[in-house]
Amino acid sequence: MDERIFNFSAGPAVLPVPVLEIAQRDLLALPGVGMSVMEISHRSKTFDEIFAKAESGLRELLGIPPNYRVLFLQGGASLQFSMVPMNFLPGDASADYVITGSWGKKALKEAKRSGNVNVAATMADGGFTRVPENEELKLSPQAAYVHITTNETIEGVEWKQEPEVGDVPLVADASSDILSHPIPIEKYGIIYAGAQKNMGPSGVTLVILRDDLLKKIPDGLHTMLDYRTHVENKSLYNTPNTWGIYIISLICDWLKEKGGLAGMHRENEAKAQLIYDAIDATEFYRGHADHDSRSIMNVTFRLPNEELEKKFSAEATAQGLDGLKGHRSVGGIRASIYNAFPLAGVKALVAFMKEFEKNNG
Ligand SMILES: *Cc1c(COP(=O)(O)O)cnc(C)c1O
Predict the structure, then answer these.
(1) Class of domain 260-360
(2) Does the beta carbon of 268 sit less than 6 angstroms from any atom of ligand 1?
(3) How far apart are the CA of 197 and the centre of ligand 1, in A?
(4) Using a 6 Å cutoff on CB, does residue 11 contact ligand 1?
């Protein structure tokens, strides 16, 4: 196969073709350097420039204020589930967790190993179909932080605006919707995201962290698990994922050319709307998330029965629409349509949905 198919994978996910083309063109020898990005020292001047470009690109696109640090770590968002409480949940304190789906549950599990946790709200009873209203949150004013998952990748549930948490630092796992729309960074204490959904390849984790929080970190943590290590060493304490950071720098260029996150957001909304309209047009398809909490990145829906769902994803795959099977924990169908996913692929899916219903409805 040498044609690209439509890749609805939830992650690692589709990357922009122009970015892949640059990476391919320069794979053997970066212009003026004569070596691949993968072959140069992370302490070389060339890598310094790549690193600086990735950071400044993200700062510009996300409007990250100067009092926030930008870190490129490893271990995925999953390691952040542990690092956040290890650094910011001291023995006698308690942290508030808002559980809107599978990833929030995993974050909670790790936090419980570190200290006291208050579940400020869980949407498990409704089957994780929406985010809570502010009035539903049982927040504690003394909490060390409030943790949310801005987009639940598996259930397809997304916050449309930040919860009101007062002066308590808001900590967010934004792995699957970072860079999909503008965000008010100053409302957050920490934002973290694995790169492989919407920002680059797997193996890099972005952490955006407000300066003043650093002084709350207890001494005695393992060096690699202490955020201060990475701040002081500018993410170069150990060898970072040089290739991943390079791709992020190219993604930032691509996003800027597209008009930044506001432009990207409009495109993402338009793409998602096409699929949600197709779901709403018939009883055959049932959307998982409530209207107000529908994700623009991961569109989740059900068919009348599991047999039809299997048939749907199998036939779609055969037609070059790959990765539509829902996560094994929830079933159904999931169309992940991140920034780089093309409109043509969304239109192809909508056409397939109509055809499939006609033949099976
Ligand atoms: C994919 C994902 C994770 C896990 O990321 P890893 O990089 O595999 O650790 C965590 N949270 C969310 C919201 C995700 O989508």
Answers:
(1) alpha beta
(2) no
(3) 8
(4) yes
User: In which band, very low, low, confident or very high, does the pLDDT at 191 lie, cut at 50, 70 and 90?
Assistant: very high
pLDDT tens across 243-289, in order?
A: 999 999 999 999 999 999 999 999 999 999 999 999 999 999 999 99
Residue 238 half-sphere exposure, CB side, CA atoms within 13 Å?
9
Taking the centre of ligand 1 as the mean of its atom positions, its distance from the CA of residue 146, in whole angstroms, is 18
| Residue bearing the CA closest to ligand 1, atom 13 | 175
Q: For residue 147, give the nearest of 80, 92, 227 by alpha carbon.
A: 80
* CATH architecture under which domain 19-257 falls: 3-Layer(aba) Sandwich (3.40)
Where in the sequence of the chain do the CATH 3.90.1150.10 domains occur? 260-360
User: Which H or E run contains 352?
Assistant: helix 343-360
Ligand 1 and 201: CB distance under 6 A: no
Q: What is the residue with the minimal CA distance to atom 5 of ligand 1? A: 77
pLDDT one-digit tens code per residue, 71-100:
999 999 999 999 999 999 998 899 999 999
Mean pLDDT, all residues of the chain: 97
Distance CA(351)–CA(328), nearest Å, equals 25
Render the burial of 97-122: b for 16+ CB within 10 Å, e for the rest: bbbbbbbbbbbbebbeebbbbeebbb
Candidates 173, 254, 271, 325; catalytic one:
173
Q: From CA 147, how far away is CA 144, in angstroms rounded?
A: 10
Which residue in the list 105, 197, 271, 325 is annotated as catalytic? Answer: 197
